[in-house]
Amino acid sequence: MKVLSKQRLETALNKLSEAAEVFVPMQKGGQSGFFSWQSFKNEQDELMLDNLNVYQSPKGVVLPQTEKMYGIKTQGVEINIDQVYEDDHPTLIFGARACDVKGILAMDEVFLTRGYEDNFYKARRSNNVIIAHACYTPGDNCFCYAMEVNPVDPAGADVIIRDSGDVYVWETQSEKGEAVTAQISDLLEDKDVKLPELGSFKIDVDYTGVAEKLKTMFDHPLWDKISEPCSNCGICTYVCPSCYCFDIQVKMWGDEGYRFRAWDSCMYEEYSREAGGGNPRGAAKERFRQRFLHKLEFFQERYGTPLCTGCGRCMVVCPNDINIVRIIDAVKEAEVND
Amino acid sequence: MTDKDHKCTCDEQPLVPTIVEVIDIIDRTPDIKSFFVRNADGSGLPFQVAPGQCSMVSLLPVGESMISCTWQEGQEYQEYAIKRVGLMTDELHRIEVGQKIGLRGPYGNGFPVDECKGKDMVFIAGGIGLAPLRSFIKYCFKNREDFGKITILYGSRSQADLCFKEELFDLWPKEPNTEVFVTIDNAEPEWDGHVGFVPAYLEELNPSSNNAVAVVCGPPIMIKFVLQSLEKMGYSDDQVITTLEMRMKCGIGKCGRCNIGNEFICLDGPVYYLRQLRDLPAEW
């Protein structure tokens, strides 16, 4: 098997950066996330390839937190769209965990299927390569196995790397992956190493049948109880590797400006408030219910997979101790009238 | 619903508007104006809109709003009847003829006009809710022989708030096999027509459900009671059609906010048979 010695990791990242902007999990200032390898400063930043989940998933590589769409010039009654900002510069995500790769696959379904291809997303994604990092030791908040994610063999990766002591085993998975492998082929060695075994998950949860049961639970009193602590702060949507909802806004300085989109959150009252004042999800409970039904029922019905990838981030960051695993358990235990 | 497919008629940049010119503006009521648009170079329309479909209307620097196209006249113009309700529509009501605005679309499924052919049509609208139905009503009159009896029931708060008055009082009543009924909420000195709410008037008129389809649009509270009345009058869930509205940003089922259950109203709707709505969470 092909392996990459850990001693050669930085050389490999430098080499990969010649052809693409390489995003690597690192601690940078107060936040951890996937940042450009070119911005890595040895004395300040810390590589976090060994950590399971950095604070922010790599979703921003394909769906940036804010993204310019097109430039506008006005003159009196005239309007010109003078530039469409499709960003197709090559990007490479290095070391994404299976749950985060699944988040991007879910976004592929949203942005690239069902009649319309989102050209901005497509431009980024078609020149994006994913090198996934297999997980063998589940963390305290991991439950990906329950959400159709295989931590050891991440679906949708172009290359999978596996940590085996001093080396990463390097497995090419796709045509895009072959190109990347060729790029650093002189750094790879042939060596047979022992692969670790997948350890046991600390969280025991079963999603089977939850989407179907939720279909009958829209008006269930359970929502009153479990939504009560939620302050609709939206941090769960911010750190979620698969939350993709966006807003479109405009920025003008005098006669010039641009339209842009930005991450939005179903937790906010304005999100679904209509101009006439109506709001189908005006109450905090209704927004809470929307988020969890979207994750666990609606997305499953529409796209055939849940929109939760079991990464556990939302449970860690929630200031009010709301826990999606306990919600799945509560749904399973809830009594419903047929 | 995973096999649901949509036919995209837009170009390869569905979120980027085409610039069109406002060629005429008509005051319909104190807070509703009709905006007539066509390509900025005068050469027809940027896209074709079917009855019930919507477009994203974009006014800089304010914003974009999803508006049901109230009529497309051949290749000549599209008409959008827009009520002043918020930031964007407030600004829109201040523009003048000649203003360039952005337009993208068409979005949504539109009315099932072919499935309604051969049926008696009952159109029930309140306020600005007549704007989307008007595209279907005018389609029926353009293809008059394809439809049976046409009944139009329209209500608004006051006489001044009645939209499309010329059509309601002069043009549509002259169409063959057509009845038009208009009501306002409260009595007014200059009004000798019907006074009262739409649902009660509907039950009074009691148009037969036999081989009929009812198409309903108006304020949520009106829709709610009209649906109850129609049920009482013997209309099945397959004989009632409505068109929904939600806040929208993208129009193409991506941005997330206009969902009801697993449906995106911009893409899968906005037009639904009542039987389809019964399967969705009660957020409509």
TrEMBL record, chain A:
Ranges for domain 4Fe-4S ferredoxin-type: 219-251, 299-330
Molecular function per GO: iron-sulfur cluster binding; metal ion binding
Gene3D superfamilies: Alpha-helical ferredoxin
UniProt entry keywords in alphabetical sequence: Iron, Iron-sulfur, Metal-binding
Domain of life assignment: Bacteria
Name by which UniProt lists this protein: Alpha-helical ferredoxin
Taxonomic lineage of the native organism: Bacteria, Bacillati, Bacillota, Clostridia, Eubacteriales
From TrEMBL, chain B:
Keyword Iron: yes
Cofactor binding remark: Binds 1 [2Fe-2S] cluster per subunit.
PROSITE patterns in alphabetical order: FAD_FR
Names of the cofactor(s): [2Fe-2S] cluster
GO molecular function: 2 iron, 2 sulfur cluster binding; flavin adenine dinucleotide binding; metal ion binding; oxidoreductase activity
SUPFAM superfamilies named in the record: Ferredoxin reductase-like, C-terminal NADP-linked domain (SSF52343), Riboflavin synthase domain-like (SSF63380)
InterPro entries linked to this entry: Cyt_c3_hydrogenase_gsu, Dihydroorotate_DH_Fe-S-bd, FAD-bd_FR_type, Flavoprot_Pyr_Nucl_cyt_Rdtase, FNR_nucleotide-bd, OxRdtase_FAD/NAD-bd, PyrK_electron_transfer, Riboflavin_synthase-like_b-brl
FAD-binding FR-type domain segment(s): 12-113
Binding site for [2Fe-2S] cluster: C250, C255, C258, C266
GO term, biological process aspect, one: pyrimidine nucleotide biosynthetic process
A Pfam family the protein falls into: NAD_binding_1
Keywords: 2Fe-2S, Iron, Iron-sulfur, Metal-binding
PANTHER family per the UniProt record, alphabetical: ANAEROBIC SULFITE REDUCTASE SUBUNIT B (PTHR43513:SF1), DIHYDROOROTATE DEHYDROGENASE B (NAD(+)), ELECTRON TRANSFER SUBUNIT (PTHR43513)
The name this protein goes by in its record: Cytochrome-c3 hydrogenase, gamma subunit
UniProt organism field: Syntrophomonas zehnderi OL-4
